[in-house]
Amino acid sequence: MANRQIRLLGDPILRERCPAVEQIDDEIRRLIQDLKDTMYEADGIGLAAPQIGVRRRVFVYDVREDEHAAGVLINPRITESEGTVRESEGCLSIPDLTEVVERAARVVVEGLDEEGRALRLEADGLLSRCVQHESDHLDGILFFDRVSPLKRKMLLAKWAKSEHGANSA
Ligand code: ZN
């Protein structure tokens, strides 16, 4: 069991495209455990590998409120998306900032589970938003890349003035 430090905006790894996982070995299993531990410690609903400094296409999620039941997606691909919905969104790598982001209302995501079995997940609501947000992380995309240039500028100005932003600059 290990919590890892969450990388913050300004860390270049958050802007990289992560390579696919080719083999689910002990290293990947340890990564998955660390992602879960770190996500729960930070009280998040999703966490992607680059957020703890690992370039791999893996994320964990748990949108349940009552009990812990983390899901894992390895090499995820969003294969269907439908509708649009606008909701407020935040990110553990950009603490304290939230903004309304437009996302697909419903998605189908396909990938592998932690045993390497093919997984197909149909998601709507919060889970759909979470899956899209975490998939973006694997391509170096952050939520504020999906808002208007003006809103992005305002968010970045706010970040630069925040405690975290000032420290990570
Ligand atoms: Zn995030």
How is this fold's topology laid out?
Layout: H1 26-41, E1 46-48, E2 58-61, E3 71-89, E4 99-112, E5 118-124, H2 125-138, H3 149-161, H4 163-168
Antiparallel strand pairs: 1-2, 2-3, 3-4, 4-5
The structure holds zinc ion.
The site of zinc ion (ZN) has 5 residues, from helix 2.
Report what the structure shows:
This protein has helices spanning 26-41, 125-138, 149-161, 163-168, and strands spanning 46-48, 58-61, 71-89, 99-112, 118-124. The chain is α+β, with helices and mostly antiparallel strands and 169 residues long. It has one domain (12-164): Alpha-Beta Complex (Peptide Deformylase). The mean pLDDT is 94. The site of zinc ion has 5 residues, from helix 2.
Unreliably modeled segments? none
Bound molecules: zinc ion
Major sheet summary line: 5 strands, antiparallel
Q: Helices and strands, in N-to-C order?
A: HEEEEEHHH
CATH class value: Alpha Beta
CATH H-level name... which superfamily? Peptide deformylase
Helix percentage: 25-40%
Percentage of residues in DSSP E strands:
25-35%
Shape: globular
Query: Averaged pLDDT, please?
Result: 94
Q: Count the DSSP helices.
A: 4
Produce a short descriptive summary.
The protein is of the alpha+beta class and 169 residues long. The protein has four helices and five strands, in the order αβββββααα.
